[in-house]
Amino acid sequence: MATNEPGVALHAALRRLLQTGQELRNSAKQPLTPDFPGLRNLMAALTAQAAVRPRHCPASYRLAWESYLVDTQHPLSARAVRYLCWEPTVATTERFQHYLDAEVGVLSARTFQGLVWCCHMCWSAEFASSAVARQIHRRLVTSTGTDGMLGRWRQHADVLVGPAGPRALAAALVAQRVPVATWCQAWGIDEHSPYVLAVLRSALSQCMHAMEEEAALRAYLLTTLLPWSQWPTPDFHAAMGATILHPVTTVTADMPERLMTLALADPRLGDVRLPSQHAHWRTVPQAAQQQVLCWLSRADMTFFFDEVLPESKDQEERKTFWLRYAPRVLRSRPLLNESDSVRLASRLRHMPEMTVHFGHSRGNASAFLLDFGAVIMVQVSDVGAACYVYGKRSFERLVPDFWQSAPFVLEALLVTQHAAMIFYHATWEKEMTETLALCDIQATYTTAAR
Question: Which residues, 6+ apart, have CB-to-CB distance to 447 below 8 Å?
Fold first, then answer.
């Protein structure tokens, strides 16, 4: 194979990129977020010379270019050319590139920065293969400036302006696992550009593919790639859905909790159970929605039985029983009375995203609502109290709004003539299982699985 073929050049460029991260790749074998002193030093040095700030092109220079297109007898001023190299609608046209060849000659480092920035702002698979992209790539490769950033760009021209560049840069980003903003600043590229979006899309795909074998990539996905603020909403939804359903998620201890926290805290998703946020989840795969709903139900159950219910000999037994039904729950809601709210205030402050849906109860006990669709279960925090099981219609007459902000009055919530009451004696599990089975609600979850 000839050494000037694009694939060979790209492979060489990627090899040079990855050489700078050898120390980091060795560190990647360590769990979660290892210390990267070599990377910090490298990034500090690069950042000092990489302050590439987009230059606003005045309207007068754009008008000058339009006038030139009509009458080529009046060349542009050198200052106008410098600014037009930062105007994507002009700089990425073949006519302007021809003008640079014919009238300008040697370009400054700042001008090259503008041309590359314009490429990145217009980036698409089609543009990357266009004649203009090839012209700018040629300019970059044949440039002779001594500017530090320009030298690095010249060395990695295939990466910065080549069709497969985003994939190569993404591979280096995933290998070195650094913050996206730091990476972009070090390379002198605009984090808000379609080019960087292409890099992040490829990085996400590579990370998802490799994280089953490399546990450290799971942490990078959760802390850096998924929370990236520049994801378009459809990309973010697709990425969250794919991560939620990824096989490695259910076997990694903290991934479900961290994904829940990320979803709940992000305004593009929020709590899948809340009516006001249903629309946010519409484009997330149904299977991913169901998985998150199950996780949230399990979190509510664990909180109520561990933190709210007083200690008792069958406390763990009750929690274990209900956890088996978590996948069948449509919505759940702990209701804390005043004394429990005060007692648990510190705990609640440390988990705001997980408790925003909590309600309040007025009475001498807290309560817990589990909605299975056909039936709704009401459990109170009094250890000796019965569990109340309501039919859907009976409960809706008592509680028209499941998510009401006003406190629930405990006496009005526990109405014996409208509910089946199951007391916690020796046969309660059998009675509850049979009651739920009448409504085709079967235990489908075991505590051994996550």
Answer: 320, 323, 324
Burial class from Cβ neighbours inside 10 Å (0-12, 13-18, 19+) for residue 104 reads middle
In a domain, 220, yes or no: yes
pLDDT of the residue at 17: 55
**What letter would DSSP give residue 150?**
H
Tens digits of residue pLDDT in 72-124: 888 899 999 999 999 999 999 999 999 999 999 888 888 999 999 999 999 99
Tell me how far apart the alpha carbons of residues 321 and 309 are, in angstroms, rounded to a whole number: 15
- State the Rg of the chain over Cα: 30
Between the alpha carbon of residue 118 and those of residues 51, 104, 213, the distances in Å are 16, 18, 38
Please tell me whether residues 45 and 164 are part of one structural domain.
yes
Q: Which parts of 53-130 fold into alpha helices (H)?
A: 59-70, 78-84, 88-91, 94-99, 109-121, 125-128
What is the domain count for the chain?
A: 2
Q: Is residue 416 part of a domain?
A: yes
- Residue 298, exposed/middle/buried by CB under 10 A (0-12, 13-18, 19+)? buried
pLDDT score for 310? 84
11 inside domain: yes
Reading phi first (left if > 0) and then psi (alpha if -120 to 50, else beta), residue 440 is in left
Those residues whose C-beta lies under 8 Å from the C-beta of residue 384, and which sit 6 or more positions away, are: 424
CA of residue 262 relative to chain centroid, distance: 7
Q: Are the CB atoms for 320 and 448 separated by under 8 Å?
A: no
Instruction: Identify the pLDDT of residue 51.
Output: 52
Residue 332's DSSP bridge partners are 370
pLDDT for 151 equals: 86
Residues in the chain: 450
Q: How far is C-alpha 256 from the chain's CA centre?
A: 13
Quote the domain boundaries for residue 429. 289-437
| DSSP states along 118-143 | HHHHT--HHHHTSHHHHHHHHHHHH-
Q: pLDDT at position 143, please?
A: 87
Decide if 239 is inside a domain: no
Q: Which residues of the chain have pLDDT under 70?
A: 1-52, 383, 445-450
CA dist 222 and 220 (Å) reads 5
Give the domain-ending residue among 230, 261, 277: 230
Nearest in space to 199 (alpha carbons), one of 169, 175, 178, 240? 169
pTM above 0.85, yes or no: no
Q: What is the pLDDT of residue 26?
A: 45
Select from 194, 214, 230 the last residue of a domain. 230
Q: What are phi and psi of 368, to 5 degrees?
A: -140, 125
Give ∠ CA 258-198-291 in degrees, rounded to 5.
30
